[in-house]
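Lab meeting minutes (informal)
Scribe: AK
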Amino acid sequence: MSAVAPTTWQSRPAPTDADAWIARATEVAAILATDAAARDRAGATPYAEVQLLKDSGLVTLLGPAAHGGGGQRWTTAYQVVREVAKADGSIAQLLGYHYLWNWAARLVGTREQWEHVEAEAARNRWFFGGAVNPRDADVVVRDEGDTLAFSGRKSFSTGSKVSDVTVLEGVLEGTDDHVFAIVPSDSEGLAFHDDWDNIGQRLTESGGVTLDNVRVGWGSAAGYVDKTFRPRVYNTLNVPTIQLVFVNFYLGIAAGALETAAGYTRNTTRPWLHGGHDRAVDEPYIIDIYGDLTTRLWAAQAFADRVAEEGQRLHDDPDAVTERDRGEFEVRVAAAKAHATDVALEVTSRIFEATGARSTATAEGLDRFWRNVRTHTLHDPVAYKRREVGRHVLIGELPTPTWYS
């Protein structure tokens, strides 16, 4: 991968506002775009790409400014994820999941815990992964007195080998109590498997992980005081927060597909021989395709931004979040997720109608946009997102917090 030396950014002032951070993300995307198709085909572990995110400072975006972080809000994080996704959906997913897991201490932990984690993460530019796939059997957490031991297996662990720290989650043995903890990714007993071999999002290192008595102190059990969890409604905001990450890298991938396709149409696509036009850009059906897809994408982006602002108000005052606040936000996120899924799949599929048969050549790599969206949008059935919206409209029901709602 073409890389920018750290001094390129270190010799310039760090971004200080949202616009400057989004501009930084645009720079990162430009670097990733130079060989995105080739890297997708190679499917190599993205060590260099994650280093790029560190060198640019994007990994510290949500961290406290006092400790070298960007001090930014979730609304900016979503925009940054979307910008990076225009060039590389895999790296955008890694970054978006990193933001969620970096924030997990604040979502679940005590003030002392999250202040410590966020300070260390910003100072050391930690990159976060997570072993929290809820479709698998729960990891068992055994109380050993002063320590906890996590044992089990998860089918997916996004970030795995490229992460500095990993968020673990399991159920305390003999109880229904869930426990989150952050551990170094090279911890004894934590083994990542090289078994991520899917058609899309190939560089996300989302393979399985085995936990064999991975030990942490009770002090690292997020939100626990004297071995008792102290719940807040804000704890349950992890699902709508990560689902908005999904929304934004779907829309970023779609935007990148449109931009790439438009460049191909301008420079390479030939007009139809019976259409009477000398240039593809003058073909009425091609003009209509780009007009239609762009209109749909802009509408989806505007809605996603509106929902992100609504969520930011909850992040700004965590202790004030009520069950109704959380439920209404989840419904709005569900609507944004459903709409973004439909738009991104349509955009990444229909661009070929405007680029023509020769654009399907492997070297062009236009298929990666659809493969990436198609792969990740199967994360959870979009029909259940529409169901949340429909039941709220018809009977005022608010979604019960689960791992997917």
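Next up, CB showed the second protein from the same session:
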Amino acid sequence: MKKFFTTLRNIFSIEELRDRIFYTLGFLAVFRLGSFIVLPGVDPSKLTGESGGLLDFLNIFLGGAFNRASIFALGIMPYISASIVVQLMGMAVPYFQRLQKEGESGRKKINQITRVLTILITLAQGSGYLATTVPNEAIGIDQRLFYISSMVILTAGTVFCMWIGEKITEKGIGNGISMLIMIGIISGFPTAIYQEFTTRGGSLLLVVEIIALFFVVMGVVLLTTAVRKIPVQYARQVVGAGGKKKMLKTGQRSYIPLKVNAANVMPIIFAQSLMFLPSLIANIWADESNAAGWVAQNFSDFTSLAYNVTFGLLILLFTYFYTAITINPDQMADDLKRNNAFVPGVKPGEATSNFISVILDRITLPSALFLAIVAVLPAIAHLFGVSMTFSRFYGGTSLIIMVGVILDTLQQIESYLLMQHYEGMMKSGNIKGRQNVAMA
């Protein structure tokens, strides 16, 4: 405990780090305040507060702003969607591939395209949101005026959230966009644990649930930080020129850190977005077919066996798919060859590419299985009697995002401490597994 308070004192003794922390906290406070400001013309008392399905999934990320018809009701999610689209286009469209190779100028163009696409997605999602989430009886002004003004406000709210995220990244601590998502998720934790405490009455079961949650979080931390290091040897270089005696410079040893969970949280997000289609489609024929009724019933219940088996299989498939499009063994082998580097015992070129591919396949399987287990843990926890609100923190997308963002932020704080010659937050002087590992 003494070391903890010493570390806190060291953190706030560094002026730049202290300013960045307060800057981040200030913007996060503005973001949370905006999530409680209701759209003009809406009567909050007449909002149902029920969304269900994918909408309920989005409401978790937005800290309840979605169901409150807030000016930040769409939050940063349109920007996330636009970023994913641009990222996928960068893997398939030659124009975006050229932009990625142009350095800083190309990055600025990609950011500009992402922002324009964010506005277009916000307009599309905003119209659907107003039509499906805000009931007519909750609108207290002319509906035409309400829809026009609300579309402008929702778009401005998303752009403002995007600006906040960029400012946190630039002048604060951590990745701004990820911080906004995390603060939305974690804002529901105090309410969830209070409701669970009220339900359990402070019994031993609550203690067991907290202990189980602790071990689940530790497992996700291990998954997030785990890397497979591939040793790399740089070829010896000849130094000296002209008539001078040439000397051989010993090649350096290094390694390629392959993240065990290279796909990060994307497989769960992709699988989650598809899991609402079976029940949606089956509801059309539910009255005419027993099979359609069975599908509609089972895929509307996130604790059913059919739902979780299908969910787990989709995560396995998407983990391999996203890892394959994210990591290119051929390009890695070419980069090693171009830099006069090689994997000891493996020939450069195609043999190196095959070697990396085999390692990637071996580490992707346990990663995919662990992701699938983490994704279905909330359903398992709910079956064991944990409330639905509290069970969501036992796994799934929200837990992986929170762990990843917190570790990334701690790494940045660690770097500031070490630069000022203070002892790091861990005895080893760094947060294990986070060095040289990029967040997805």
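CB comment: Strands lie at 227-234, 237-239, 247-249, 253-259, 341-342.
No objections, moving on.
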